[in-house]
Amino acid sequence: MTLLSKQGASIIATGSAVPELCINNHEISKVVETSDEWIVSRTGIKERRILNGINNSITDLATLAAIRALNKISMDPLEIDLIILATSSPNDLFGSASQIQANIGAYNAAAFDITAACSGFIVSLTTATQFIENGVYNNILVIGADALSKWTDWSDRSTCILFGDGAGAIILQSCLPDDKGILGFQLNTNGQKYNQLCLAYKDYYNTSNSLKITQGAFNKITMNGREVYKFAVSQVPESIEKCLYKLDIPIEEINWIILHQANKRILEAVANKLIINNNKFISNLDKYGNTSAASIPLVLDEAVGKQIIQRGQKIIISGFGAGLTWGTIAIQWKY
Ligand code: COA
């Protein structure tokens, strides 16, 4: 049964921010045994931005991305009803969205974090859409921001070459149901494979007093690269097809596809499976690497800025990663 929505939701602005420090493959080859040629041929990544220095946090980047999105449409932050921060590397495990609320002065907004790794932006945009379609809120700021460099094992050459830091933001606004920009979504989880890509908690005994309580810390990122690759290539095309099938939109009508920027070979394999020309896939992977929850809004903001994405065009965005989680959203661009 399909419930009728009270209102539709459309993206009305985008913004993004990346750290200044740029580390190319040659520099990485000085700390682990690898080469620019290996990294480019296996992943497509040439360089990545890394958050470095004291008092320079992912919350600052997320704040900047949010301010840039607000400024594009001269929106007063007091008009924002809700802030959703997609991140798996917050400054504060209790949540960092509230810091962003204060930083931008969005004092009327509720704010919370969503943790879904590289699918975080898709899960958060889907969540935001529900609040709007139910008629509860009118303006929602959705931010994808991650600094996985903080959790990368810089001695593991199979993972440290992949990740970069960044933040991307969108503003979602209510509209008439017939004018909606968020057309539909499709979400999935396979928890049985959660251990293929983890940033796992570990216990240790705190022996500093007689209670000997077990306490926690987080390990660095661990990944089974081949399994994650196979998962993405098999599941992402299926998710896109299911999403479009539900909406009765033929894939030929899609103007642009923006996948989570994990690996050039994954993008190419998905294009082959869907029998879609590679040039419909927008990518900036070479410059930023895998920025986790930030990757899709970073591409969106860049593509809108370069006027690649035009009003009225249909776009697929699709995220995948730890969990394992994956999902797709179909969008019609409205501004
Ligand atoms: N430089 C040079 N050699 C490397 C290397 C590096 N950075 N990383 C791994 N290797 C080596 C391995 O040690 C292995 O050597 P061996 O044959 O002597 O044992 C060889 O390259 C092949 O390793 P393998 O893991 O099979 O490589 P791969 O072709 O699968 O490429 C990844 C590795 C990580 C690039 C690839 O598996 C991948 O992209 N997976 C998806 C990861 C991803 O996108 N994760 C995030 C999802 S959100």
UniProtKB/TrEMBL annotation:
Its Enzyme Commission number?
Answer: 2.3.1.180
Please give the pathway this protein is involved in: Lipid metabolism; fatty acid biosynthesis
Q: Domain Beta-ketoacyl-[acyl-carrier-protein] synthase III C-terminal spans what residues? A: 247-333
Q: Please state every residue range assigned to the domain named Beta-ketoacyl-[acyl-carrier-protein] synthase III N-terminal.
A: 112-191
List the active site. C118, H260, N290
Q: Which domain of life is it from?
A: Eukaryota
A Pfam family that this protein carries is ACP_syn_III
Entry's Gene Ontology cellular component terms = cytoplasm
Q: Which GO terms describe its molecular function?
A: 3-oxoacyl-[acyl-carrier-protein] synthase activity; beta-ketoacyl-acyl-carrier-protein synthase III activity
Q: Does the keyword Transit peptide apply?
A: no
One GO BP: fatty acid biosynthetic process
Q: Which UniProt keywords apply?
A: Acyltransferase, Cytoplasm, Fatty acid biosynthesis, Fatty acid metabolism, Lipid biosynthesis, Lipid metabolism, Multifunctional enzyme, Plastid, Transferase
Please state the protein's primary subcellular location.
Answer: cytoplasm
UniProt catalytic activity: malonyl-[ACP] + acetyl-CoA + H(+) = 3-oxobutanoyl-[ACP] + CO2 + CoA
**Annotated compartments:** Cytoplasm
Q: Does the keyword Cell inner membrane apply?
A: no
What are the boundaries of the region ACP-binding? 261-265
Q: What class of enzyme is it?
A: transferase
Q: Which NCBIfam families match?
A: fabH, PRK09352.1
The record's note on its domains: The last Arg residue of the ACP-binding site is essential for the weak association between ACP/AcpP and FabH.
Record note on quaternary structure = Homodimer.
Concerning PANTHER family, the annotation shows:
3-OXOACYL-[ACYL-CARRIER-PROTEIN] SYNTHASE, BETA-KETOACYL-[ACYL-CARRIER-PROTEIN] SYNTHASE III, CHLOROPLASTIC
Outline what the protein does: Catalyzes the condensation reaction of fatty acid synthesis by the addition to an acyl acceptor of two carbons from malonyl-ACP. Catalyzes the first condensation reaction which initiates fatty acid synthesis and may therefore play a role in governing the total rate of fatty acid production. Possesses both acetoacetyl-ACP synthase and acetyl transacylase activities. Its substrate specificity determines the biosynthesis of branched-chain and/or straight-chain of fatty acids. Catalyzes the condensation reaction of fatty acid synthesis by the addition to an acyl acceptor of two carbons from malonyl-ACP. KAS III catalyzes the first condensation reaction which initiates fatty acid synthesis and may therefore play a role in governing the total rate of fatty acid production. Possesses both acetoacetyl-ACP synthase and acetyl transacylase activities.
Q: Which family does it belong to?
A: Belongs to the thiolase-like superfamily. FabH family.
Name listed for the protein in its UniProt record: Beta-ketoacyl-[acyl-carrier-protein] synthase III
Q: Which organism is it from?
A: Gelidium coulteri
Question: Lineage of this protein's species?
Answer: Eukaryota, Rhodophyta, Florideophyceae, Rhodymeniophycidae, Gelidiales
